[in-house]
Design brief:
Elements (H helix, E strand, L loop, with lengths): L5 H16 L17 E8 L5 E8 H11 L9 H16 L1
Antiparallel strand pairs: 1-2
Helix pairs in contact: 2-3
Length: 96
């Protein structure tokens, strides 16, 4: 199976973020820790004809926004578990 093109991954990521979260993503030029503090990483392992992993890394501040958007929690601060769940769901959607 041929390698997955970077542009294909970018397009899928943009589609997921816009359709689910109504937010435009920022795709980093190279992997690394987001600046400005701690981050949360979602990882999905893939096996089969293609073996690898999909990772999505966001600052904790964005994880709060993701969880609030996904779980419609605009009037309360999402818990850490909600933040982890939200990023896990986003990572699964992108990896799918």
């Amino acid at each position: 199976m041929p390698p997955v093109a970077r542009q294909d991954v970018v397009l899928v990521t943009e589609d997921v973020w816009l359709s689910i979260l109504n937010m435009a993503p920022h795709v980093a030029a190279a992997p690394g820790v987001p600046s400005g503090g701690d981050s949360l990483v979602g990882v999905v392992q893939i096996t089969g004809d293609w073996v690898g992993a999909v990772t999505v890394q966001v600052p904790w501040t964005l994880a709060v926004r993701l969880a609030a958007a996904m779980f419609a929690a605009s009037d309360s601060v999402p818990t850490r578990d909600d933040q982890v769940d939200a990023l896990g769901e986003i990572t699964n959607m992108i990896g799918g």
